[in-house]
Write a structure and sequence with these properties.
By secondary structure, the chain is of the alpha/beta class. Helices cover about 35% and strands about 25% of the residues.
Amino acid sequence: MPASGFAMGIERLLEVLEQRGSLKRGLPQVDYYVYVLSNERNHLMLGYKLAGNLRARGSRVIVDTGEKSLRSALEYASKINVRYFVIVGPREVSQGLVKVRDMSSWSERDVPLTEFGINA
């Protein structure tokens, strides 16, 4: 049966609209993306406590319990325009730290848990 059709990728359409000024990317919808590297109970609890403290300060927070790979989580966080990506890993936690990546500059620094109101 003869037919014809047309298709366009939504990403390309959004990109063209953004270039024309018809669509503007706003401020980040999520302030912090907390990624817990370990499935150990104390690390998971620390991730949830960290998220709770950040939410109490008025931040918008996503908690990922490691269901995605770190790479996939970083790609997703970049896609949804997250401001900071926080890694709660065994090595960092043992030192009383978390790793915080600024998603706009991709710079990373170790931040003491005490800065988030958590006593190590």
